[in-house]
Amino acid sequence: MTFFTKSSFSAFYQVSDLASLPCTLGSDIPKRMDTILPVLLFVVIAAAVSVSLIILPRLVAPRRKGAVKEMPYESGMDPIHDTRRRFDVRFHLVAVTFLVFDVELLFLYPWAVASRSPAGIDAAVAEGMLSSRGLAFAGGLVFVLLVVVGFAYDWRKGVFRWR
Description:
By secondary structure, the protein is an all-alpha fold. Helix content is 66%, strand content 0%. The radius of gyration is 28 Å and the shape is flat.
């Protein structure tokens, strides 16, 4: 599994280096192909799946046209209003609040994993990138505190009350 930790440039260098190898190094080629073969298989399978997902429905799917099929579809409801009508501002407040808390989870999850993994915060402290585990914990607590303050502000402003 350590083959996938190399950069793409080094993998390209190994592939281009195969053509310039003399025939006396034939025993080294299988080892080099072991590093490139999984990537080549992945690319071939991804291309085959992509092409088949585009071509297969055109061959198999029925083609029926009608007034109902040509009508716009909006979440199971008939579109009866103008598409450029204004939305209530509360819709946008809820959407932005959801994004804020969703992004907050994106930052908290790696921090939680790194705090439990020996290769995470402990390794950073051992290498001198961080002075102590307590500093990382304090940074996480400050982040959570800011999120709680934002949640309290949203609650106070009535973002979560839908009238």
